[in-house]
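Page 42, continued from yesterday. The earlier attempt failed because a stray header line got pasted into the input along with the sequence. Redoing it now with the clean sequence only.
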Amino acid sequence: TANGEGPMVTAHPHSAVAESYRVLRTNLQFGTLPAGEGPVVILVTSAAPQEGKTTTLANLGVSLAQIGKRVILVDTDLRRPTLHKHFHLTGETGLTSLLLARGRDPETVLRETGVPSLRVVAAGPIPANPAEVLSLPETAHVLERLKERADYVLLDSPPVLSVADAGILAQRADGVLLVTEEGRTRTGALQRAVAALQKVKARLLGVALNKAR
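This time it went through. Structure tokens are written below.
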């Protein structure tokens, strides 16, 4: 984000950073995801905390929406949710509101962002057992209902090496984008993260290098 102004792609659309996110968008569209297969769910995660996964997800979402794609960003980090803050939204209701109240209409938790075609589902009330909640069959059902309303559903998850959540979600996604940060992400941590994703048979789309010089 740009000093609290929101995603860089919105605040400074002509900057080099915004252009980098457009390149990332193009690579995801044409380099890794087969065309014409309908809506896709992409998990955006990192090996460790504070490597830029949420910022990357927010900007990627804006970039996709700017070319007319219907995009839903979902905060699946049920431990330290921050996605809603990037769009100056509140997080009182969201994903857990859908998971724990079966049959609830997803439209009741979808929030407008000010960017046409881009909506956000906040994390909602924080559960005592996030991994168990995400393991519920209802999670897959909720994702399917969101896919009916979007071309891209992007999931913001906790880091791969911190908790089991990312591995659980990766099995429900069509692909995983792994975010790393230059000068911060350690080679060993990245290798362990990739191995953990491969263990659950996740489809690794690629790696985004954040804050590259």
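Notes: DSSP finds nine helices and seven strands in the chain.
Reminder to self: strip header lines before submitting.
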